[in-house]
């Protein structure tokens, strides 16, 4: 898949002003590329500061080429978690199988696994001096006209921009204001999950331990040899628990009820969840939309096409989407043509990666006794299986080449030694 139809000279974009809502992954990545193309960029983020820490995420396939062109690949390699073992347990906590992560789909030497905060920090570091960041604020209203978008921020500030991009996550306020309620576009995948941190009392290091019973999973993830573990409680639910989504107390009660009779270390995990100050609860779902823009406002990353954690491709799609949107805006002075080119260029790639959930991406979380037995049989066989080849969906998109004026050395741009963006 190679995007076509991007012809307009990038020199026409020098003075256009763009507001990006959201400073997680897609937002700073888009800000970086837009700045390199000569746009004036402002990023607004409702959090008071950059969020650090976070659960491990993957950078794979085409996204690896994006971070290479950005010059942050060496930094991310240094932050690579390098998990050495995944241990699977049955319902009573007995070991079933211990496998290397590459047996589960990781391509050795190519995929990167880093803390979400490490990726966010790397992106922020290369753009913070060139882009305006407004932390502790958010978009309250968008009023589009022929000349631009009048934006009212929660702080009361009012600004006018040529374009606005929503990079504000799966529960995007930008998307809601532009297209309507999330329910129209949300595809629920049948799981709820809770993520939090807890003390590493088991002495785990660079490894994942996963406990299962039908419809339930509990995981402890040690990203290093430190005193903290990432805890994960996942369970099958036929319908979305709407009441719990709106009530943190109800979330904790629901998780505790679901895992009330669980074995292994799950009772201690539930206790830790009760006390955690960083609990994140949500449903596994995707955002599927027929269009990602309306007028002068567009969406990128999870706001437009969240694939769910079951695919492991959320951050990768955010990085690739940011690159493709910036490229389209740089090559088309007319925003309508640019947004159309952006969708043409990446929609098939998005569809392929979202479809991973229909091709066994949830196989680690079986919902029936039989499915769990089948998965366990597969795990025992994986111990002796060779490492897999690269997955087509992750690398299906060929990135367009960088225009000459976006290559290193132009306008004072610097690149990490050994990296050659735009090759």
Please, could you describe this protein's structure?
By secondary structure, this protein is an alpha/beta fold. Helices cover 30% and strands 24% of the residues. It folds into 2 domains: 10-81 and 112-185 and 288-362 and 392-412, 3-Layer(bba) Sandwich (FAD/NAD(P)-binding domain); 187-285, 2-Layer Sandwich (D-Amino Acid Oxidase, Chain A, domain 2), CATH 3.30.9.30. The strands form 4 sheets. It has a 7-stranded mixed β-sheet with strand order 5-4-13-14-15-12-16, with helices on both faces. α10 runs antiparallel to α11.
**Which architecture of the largest domain per CATH?**
3-Layer(bba) Sandwich
What is the CATH topology of the largest domain? Answer: FAD/NAD(P)-binding domain
CATH class category name of the largest domain: Alpha Beta
Number of helices: 12
Estimated structural class: alpha/beta
- Please, what is the CATH homologous superfamily of the largest domain? FAD/NAD(P)-binding domain
Shape estimate? globular
Helix content: 25-40%
Total E-strand runs:
18
- The total tally of domains equals 2
Low-confidence runs of at least 5 consecutive residues: 2-14, 409-423
């Amino acid at each position: 898949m190679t995007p076509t139809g991007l012809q307009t000279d990038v020199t026409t974009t020098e003075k256009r002003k763009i507001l990006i809502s959201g400073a997680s992954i897609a937002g700073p990545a888009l800000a970086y590329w837009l700045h390199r193309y000569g746009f004036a960029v402002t990023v607004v983020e409702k959090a008071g500061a950059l969020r650090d820490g976070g659960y491990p995420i993957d950078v794979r396939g085409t996204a690896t080429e994006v971070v290479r062109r950005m010059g942050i690949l060496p930094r991310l390699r240094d932050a690579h978690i390098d998990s050495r073992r995944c241990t699977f347990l049955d319902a009573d906590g007995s070991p079933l199988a211990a496998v290397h992560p590459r047996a589960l789909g990781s391509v050795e030497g190519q995929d990167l696994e880093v803390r979400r905060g490490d990726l966010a920090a790397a992106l922020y570091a290369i753009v913070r001096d060139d882009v305006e960041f407004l932390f502790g604020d958010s978009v309250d209203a968008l009023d589009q006209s022929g000349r631009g978008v009048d934006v009212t921020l929660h702080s009361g500030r009012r600004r006018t921009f040529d374009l606005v991009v929503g990079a504000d996550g799966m529960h995007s306020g930008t998307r809601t204001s532009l297209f309507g309620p999330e329910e129209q576009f949300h595809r629920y995948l049948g799981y709820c999950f809770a993520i939090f941190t807890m003390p590493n009392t088991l002495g785990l290091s660079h490894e994942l331990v996963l406990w299962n019973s039908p419809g339930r999973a509990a995981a402890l993830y040690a990203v290093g040899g430190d005193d903290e573990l990432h805890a994960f409680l996942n369970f099958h639910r036929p319908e979305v628990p709407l009441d719990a989504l709106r009530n943190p107390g109800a979330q904790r009660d629901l998780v505790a009820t679901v895992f009330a009779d669980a074995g292994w270390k799950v009772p201690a995990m539930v206790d830790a969840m009760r006390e955690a100050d960083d609990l994140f609860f949500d449903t596994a779902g995707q955002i599927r939309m027929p269009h990602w823009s309306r007028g002068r406002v567009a969406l990128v990353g999870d706001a437009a096409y969240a694939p769910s954690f079951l695919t492991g491709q959320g951050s990768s799609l955010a990085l690739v989407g940011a690159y493709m949107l910036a490229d389209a805006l740089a090559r088309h002075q007319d925003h309508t043509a640019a947004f159309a080119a952006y969708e043409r260029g990446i929609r098939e790639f998005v569809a392929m990666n979202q479809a991973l959930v229909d091709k066994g991406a949830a196989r680690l979380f079986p919902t029936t006794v039989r499915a769990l037995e089948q998965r366990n049989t597969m795990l025992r066989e994986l111990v002796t299986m060779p490492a897999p080849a690269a997955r087509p969906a992750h690398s299906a998109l060929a990135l367009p080449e960088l225009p000459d004026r976006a290559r290193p050395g132009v306008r004072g741009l610097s690149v990490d030694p050994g990296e050659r963006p735009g090759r």
